[in-house]
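Lab notebook, bench 4. The sequencing result for the construct came back, and we need a structural model before the next group meeting so we can plan mutations. Quick request posted to the team channel:

Model the 3D structure of this chain.
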Amino acid sequence: MTNTQTPYDYVAQMFDQDMRDRIVAFWKTFVQHADEIDGMFSRADGGTADIVQIMQALEPVSKDLMWEFGPSDRGHLLCVTAEFRDELRPQARLVMRMAPDLPRWRFVDARPPDPPEMLEQVHQNRFRGPITVEKIEATIAVDGRIDQVAYGAGSRDDLLSQTLNISTILLGEEQERDWIGLVDPVPNKGGGLLGLFRGNKSAPFDGNAWLDMMQTRIKQAQGLMPDVPYSKLDMDTRPYTVASELNLRPDHRRNDLITFTASNETYLQAALRGGLFSSRCHSRFGEWFMYLRVPTVPDGPFDTLTERAWLEERLHELLSENGRGGVVAAGHGSESEYIDIAVTDVGAAVALIQADIVDVPFASGATLHFLDTGVEDYVLPATANHIVH
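Done. Here's the predicted structure in token form:
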């Protein structure tokens, strides 16, 4: 476990002993065959290790986790990944946190990027098909992610899938999940399966140019973020953006919001959209975003904006003075009041909050929530040191 906890680290540590025992059993099996697998990858004539049979030991942990072997700076790489199943990211993280330290092996929970010159080969091997995308344009979306328009031969579904595949191959899985937003596929005229059947060939896709463009867009997006941590932003002097008449989606986790105020427009848009969310799109200082939900009760101890403002100041002072973060935004809803925070260490920040507001009259009903995709369904009672899913 790293000293600074991310939301994925925090949730990973909450899995029960039964899950941990299954992971221990998997790694025990892997260790028993590690030299055999090493020999198969290292010798020119290969070896006799049955990789699929060995990796079946992972199934009791989860049948939906994916795995892949490759080279690494230590010799070999084993990636156990959630791939596009974001809800499995904490589980994949725990598998890696419990990995043994073996000579010649490196273990990760997200596929690293592949070099552009390997793009066609990796795409063919992993996704069983050629790349027919010819050109991609990228822009920074209002929520801080990078949207793409893809041109090429094939159907809209083909171009959409290939663009996401290209993104994950060249950026690596972690950056792809952090940064890639919407994809708008634009098939060539005469494209689709009929066009391919007629021999309409695609121009080769330039992976190097795409990667340069994407890295430029990410740097530009980072330039829109606050240039100091939220703990250093004064609540009284920072600028604010107010949104009302929100028309949130019915499945939005804060669909009772009436007004929402944030000190950063990009964060405001991302929080209100309610789709994919990555904290890395909103802080260049390693901050992770959460929110406190406080149910309102008519004639109860917490039903006015004045009381929420008091709590905002209290939380900001608590987090900033301890170097753990600060308040980012606040919202007024028909059922709850919301305070969004940015924290540098999830575990430390949660412990501070739970200890600080334990004696506040309304705290028994307050809950803490993550925004990052894959952990957004986890709910932390704001005064208890446990997690409920």
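The longest strand covers residues 325-333.
Will bring this to the meeting.
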